[in-house]
Design a protein that fits this description.
By secondary structure, this protein is α+β, with helices and mostly antiparallel strands. Strand 9 and strand 10 form a beta hairpin.
């Protein structure tokens, strides 16, 4: 089907993607992309949906994905070397932030996978790796971005739509800035100095007091994408868990 009036073939060309599948309603674009990857879809393939009825986030959480309200997409990466998905999630967050900033909206990044506008969640990222024996075969990168508001009242205190800051925003304009950035992400196993510096400038957690996953002061991330927390026991490295501020 077309996406905002653009046919799939034309959409792939506009985004610089080898293929772009646009669907009406799916459980999750991640499910569709994993199936395509298993059938040999090339790196850079994109799946978009108008609506997800079982969109998912980290740790089994659901993602509110109503029809036409946002960008509900998955992007296929086929790393040629070992890769920590924590580092990949950081890279994807940087790509989303840069795309939004191209449109004139400054955002923050909250470890491990949130993009924030005005201290509320604008977008979320979920990386799901699949292995064949001992080889990383592919990573499906799920990205959900709230584009058009209003956000439902039960979520309005913690979520935000991009249109609240940029009423004229459209999904294609954001996708045209985002997908090429995903295609040029480094394939290195760890974040380099420039990526760490770019993350630091947008690090919403830096120097905030944390109650979970460990108590202490957030001190950024390391090259693998792990959270660094200054605790009473010293600097600790956290690779998973949910963040709760004091």
């Amino acid at each position: 089907m077309s996406y905002d009036g653009v046919a799939p073939g034309d959409l792939a060309a506009r985004l610089g993607a080898p293929s772009c599948l646009s669907l009406v309603t799916v459980t999750s674009t991640l499910d569709v992309l994993h199936d395509l990857a298993a059938e040999g879809a090339p790196a850079g393939s994109v799946v978009l949906a108008e609506e997800q009825i079982a969109g998912r986030g980290r740790q089994g959480r659901s993602w509110h994905s109503p029809a036409g309200a946002g960008i509900w997409m998955s992007y296929l990466a086929r790393p040629t070397r070992g890769l920590d998905t924590g580092a990949l999630a950081i890279r994807v967050g940087l790509a989303v932030a840069d795309a939004a900033e191209d449109l004139g909206v400054m955002v923050g990044l909250k470890w491990p996978n949130d993009v924030l506008l005005w201290d509320r969640k604008l977008a979320g990222i979920l990386c799901e790796a699949r292995w064949q024996r001992d080889r990383l075969a592919w990573v499906a990168i799920g990205i959900g971005i709230n584009v058009h508001g209003p956000v439902p009242a039960p979520l309005a205190g913690r979520a935000v739509a991009l249109s609240e800051a940029l009423p004229s925003v459209n999904r294609l304009g954001l996708l045209e800035r985002l997908v090429p950035r995903l295609a040029t992400m480094p394939d290195a196993a760890h974040l380099d100095r420039d990526e760490l510096a770019r993350y630091r400038r947008r690090d919403w957690l830096f120097d905030r007091c944390l109650a979970e996953p460990v108590r202490g002061m957030a001190q950024g991330v390391d090259a693998s994408g792990a959270l660094l927390v200054q605790t009473a026991r010293g600097l600790e490295r956290v690779v998973g868990g949910s963040v709760t501020c004091c």
